[in-house]
Design brief:
The complex is a heterodimer of chains A (223) and B (79). Chain A is built from 5 helices and 12 strands. Chain A is globular and about 45 Å long. Chain B is mainly β and 79 residues long. The chains are: A alpha/beta (223), B mainly beta (79). Chains A and B meet through α3 and β9 of A and β4 and β5 of B. β9 of chain A pairs parallel with β5 of chain B, so a sheet runs across the interface.
Chain lengths: 223, 79
């Protein structure tokens, strides 16, 4: 089995991170070459390696009141927010079997997201010099990855529902003043997460030319 | 003495920033141990040690920018 798809559902960030580490080890041990992990997170702010202290605008009291925790993590990029209205995708790919090229992988993630959004007739693009996917000048998907021994982890988040977007005002996304949008904003209604997952999965399969095997793991079984 | 340089990371990436050293000068490392974590705009990655030995000199500190091909660290190989 070369390519695995996991679906963790709505899950706490730290538990999803543990699961991701486990998938990383299995990829490293050659059990499979690549994995896609789908999940949604309870509200959380994560700080990438390039995050500056001023990237979080809200006070710790304000975050506490909203039940939002902060994690410093080893991905690239600055600060971001995750909430249940986003589909988070962690591609754990062994690039030793694909191409050992950091930028090519980042660009491939953008291509996969744009193809998935096109299935919903959302015309999305990249912007020169910036990583991520945009609808005109608004960001609809964010990307930040880490690579160890040419195996990737962390990944991308697609804004599906718009009610989460307000929480981006608690931070300066990616250390810049960026306007966010969501699939719901663009379509006037939000598509089901199942449909978005199918679209993303299909674009990744086209990208890797591997055959996907569904392997659902319920939230409870993720350690 | 082996000098470990920043390897090619793919097209369009000429430099990276040192974000974390896993060891300090004078410390012993084993082959494949992570030496250093580096980052570009949206990606971080590690550089494993090509050999077992002692870190003699670290040429770039955390926060420094390194060009592809530049030596990051010198390692005295274990005999």
């Amino acid at each position: 089995m070369q390519f695995r798809v996991f679906d963790l559902g709505l899950i706490d960030f730290s538990r999803a991170r543990d699961f991701q580490q486990e998938a990383f080890s299995r990829v490293k041990d050659n059990e499979f070459k690549a994995a896609l992990i789908f999940c949604r997170h309870y509200p959380v702010i994560t700080l990438g390696r390039n995050a500056e202290e001023c990237a979080v605008l809200a006070s710790s009291d304000e975050l506490k009141a909203k039940g939002i925790s902060i994690y410093e993590i080893e991905r690239g990029g600055s600060v971001t927010y995750h909430g249940p209205g986003q589909l988070v995708v962690y591609p754990v790919f062994n690039l030793n079997y694909f191409k050992k090229d950091v930028n090519l992988f980042l660009r491939s993630l953008e291509v996969a997201i744009i193809a998935a959004l096109a299935k919903f007739s959302i015309p999305a693009n990249t912007r020169e010099g910036l990583t991520g996917v945009w609808v005109e000048n608004k960001k609809i998907a964010s990307i930040g990855i880490a690579i160890r021994n040419w195996i990737t982890y962390h990944g991308l988040a697609i804004n599906v529902k718009k009610d989460d977007l307000a929480n981006f005002s608690l931070i300066r996304p990616c250390g810049m003043d960026i306007m966010m949008t969501a699939m719901e904003t663009e379509l006037g209604r939000h598509p089901s997460f199942e449909l978005v997952k199918m679209a993303v999965r299909e674009s990744f399969l086209n990208l890797t030319n591997e055959i996907g095997v569904d392997y659902n793991i319920k939230q409870e079984t993720a350690r | 003495m082996i000098k470990v340089a920043l390897p090619g990371l793919g097209e369009g990436i000429e430099k990276a920033t040192v974000t974390y050293w896993f060891f300090q000068e004078g410390e012993k490392v084993k082959e494949k141990d992570d030496l250093v974590e580096l980052s570009t705009d949206k990606a971080t990655f590690n550089l494993p040690s090509p050999c077992s030995g002692t870190l003699v000199e670290i040429f770039f500190r955390e926060g420094d920018t390194v060009n592809v091909g530049e030596a990051l660290v010198a390692i005295e190989e274990e005999q």
